[in-house]
Amino acid sequence: MSAISVKNLSKKYGTFHAVNNLSFEVENNHVVGFLGPNGAGKTTTLRMLVGLSKPTNGKMEIAQTQVVFGKSAANTKIGYLPELPSMYRWMSGAEYLGFISDIFKISAAEKKTKINGLLKLVDLTSAKNKRISTYSGGMIQRLGIAQALLNDPEVIIMDEPVSALDPIGRKEVLGVIEKLKNNRTVLFSTHILSDVDKICDDVVIINEGKLVASAPLSILKAQYASPILEIEFTSDPKTIVTDLKQQKWVKKVEHSGNKLRIWLIDNDVVEKNIPLNFLAQHKIGILKYGLTLPETEDVFMSLVEDKK
Amino acid sequence: MVLFTLIRKDLLEQWRTKKILILSIIFLFVTISSPILAKITPELLKSVSVPGMTLKLPTPTYFDALDQFVKGTSQIALLVLVFVVAGAVSDEKNRKTLEILLTKPISRTLFILSKFKAYFISITAIFAASSLIFYLYTVSTFASFNFLNFAIMAGNVLLYILMIAAVTILASTVVKNSIAAGGIGFVVIILFGTIFSLIEPIKKYSPNTIFSNYKDLVVHGWNNDLFWPLIVIISVIIISIVVSILVFKGQEIER
Fold first, then answer.
1. Does B253 sit within 8 Å of A53, measured CB to CB?
2. Which whole number is the average pLDDT over B205-233?
């Protein structure tokens, strides 16, 4: 059974289709990266999923409850963290969580245990009585995660949870998301693709409001990403780069100092030793030669460029 | 229960962001200054008179203090109130605090009701306290006058104030900017304060009658001329609440 189901979802602003007939499903207890270039429609989709924005067309379900704009039935099942979350700055972190607990009608005894547990999870125990106005960006983001978890939601939706953070803040927040992995469904949008590699089971990729791919990350990597050959030479291989780019078995070449990264059209190229034969003809010394596993970024680039 | 949580949060916000303090100071200023001004104005005028000129000034009474109180409330206090209330909904939109709140199990109707109720509670409490202080201070400075009649007059003025607050909250729901919402509230004060009273066929319905009939009210108690203005005031309050809910229900929360 799907934790999130999106069917034929569209959002039009005048004549512009921000989201265009989008359909995808997210399985229970999976961490899913929601990817797409800037302006692809990620935030618009997420905001329709949590009921902040009204769809022009389509149907959405979260944990088998239909999402209806302006109605709060599905809200009991979700936790939402917007991009750059904003909370009442005149409250302390603990007060804010207390306020959200009261909205969910959590009993006084349970409230205290829950808030303390969540503050510990997001490492804000020592700052719980400080005003939110004094929090750093990372602390606000972590408090945002805590409020999204207060109701033990089946589904957590996060919009760019780490994009605005420095490397330390990013690591902290990713650590928290990773802790959630076992018993909750997490859908989060990001443009930091290395983070997707670290914590996601599946990805949904959209571009220009349309679905590009929705599948487990491992399958997409095997299916879409080209094998990449990484070679380090004894000297700068600039003399062969132009020639290399013209070879039929080469999709793309990246040149940096004595190193080359070559995107191959398929695995057969390596099995037939075509690159080695080519390099042998050019008589250039090789220090390292090997295939690397494609990363999410390679899959993303390959998919988005294919669709263009 | 959720409504109570939201009202408590709004009242705490008004307290911590000093809105209650600002309103208290301004109403208290009007309250304290009114009897003082009534008392010292003749003395002030005498002190600036030129030799040879004879000034015949009547002895100040509680009516003069009432004059100052009603004028101060209907002018300075109302203006400040409009700009304090103007951010009720628009600030939540601008500061994006609504983004998290509306993804919780809160109906949009309750959210808007909490805004109206929280402001009505704080305004009523502040105005009631100010009016009581004014009454006690005026009675101790001048002669005693009927408390019940004064309470009826103050109640009418309070309803007028709540009407202006209600229209301003409606404006704050419709527009995104609190300055624009305040501007609309200001226009409504002018509309009800002057234009309404100038058009003869609708003059008897003008909410501003509350401010022109107060002396008669304090001396003789309730009079029927206030019936229609009060009906208009209550109708405007109810319409503002209903329209705010309807508008907010269809509103998308922009990024």
1. yes
2. 85
* Confidence class for position B245, pLDDT limits 50, 70, 90: very high
First-to-last C-alpha distance (Å) of chain B: 29
pLDDT for res B203: 81
CA atoms within 13 A on the CB side of B235: 9
Mutate: best of A46, A88, A107, partner B, most B CBs <10 A: A88
Q: Which of B103, B106, B109, B111 to mutate to test the interface with A (most CBs of A within 10 A)?
A: B103
Give A88's contacts in chain B (Cβ within 8 Å).
Answer: 9, 13, 97
Q: What is the pLDDT of residue A121?
A: 86
* Backbone φ, ψ for residue A288 (5° rounding): -135, 145
ipTM: 0.88
DSSP summary character for residue A126: G
Nearest beta carbon to residue A103 from set B105, B250, B255: B105
Residues A75, B108: C-beta atoms closer than 8 Å: no
| Residues from A in contact with B at Cβ < 8 Å | 43, 47, 50-54, 70-73, 75-76, 78, 80-88, 90, 99-100, 102-105, 144, 147, 151
Low-confidence spans in chain A with pLDDT less than 50: none
- What span, in angstroms and rounded, lies between the C-alpha atoms of A204 and A156? 15
Tell me the shortest Cα–Cα distance from B93 to chain A, in angstroms.
Answer: 10
Establish if B100 touches chain A: CB-CB under 8 angstroms.
Answer: yes
The rounded radius of gyration (Å) of the Cα atoms in chain B is 20
Distances (CA, A) of B248 to A12, A98, B222, B244: 20, 26, 38, 6
Question: In chain B, what residues touch A54 (CB-CB under 8 Å)?
Answer: 250, 252
Q: Count Cα neighbours of B87 within 13 Å in the Cβ-side half-sphere.
A: 14
Query: B39-45 long-range CB contacts below 8 Å, 24 or more apart?
Result: B39/B65, B39/B141, B39/B142
Q: Is the pLDDT assigned to residue B214 strictly greater than 60?
A: yes
Inter-chain contact B103–A99, Cβ cutoff 8 Å? no
Token readout for A247 is 């070879």
Residue B95 has pLDDT above 70, yes or no: yes
- What's the pTM? 0.84
Identify the pLDDT of residue A100. Answer: 97
Evaluate whether A226 touches A213 at the Cβ level (below 8 Å). no
Q: Tell me the pLDDT tens digit for each residue of B139-168.
A: 998 888 899 999 999 999 999 999 999 999
pLDDT at B117: 97
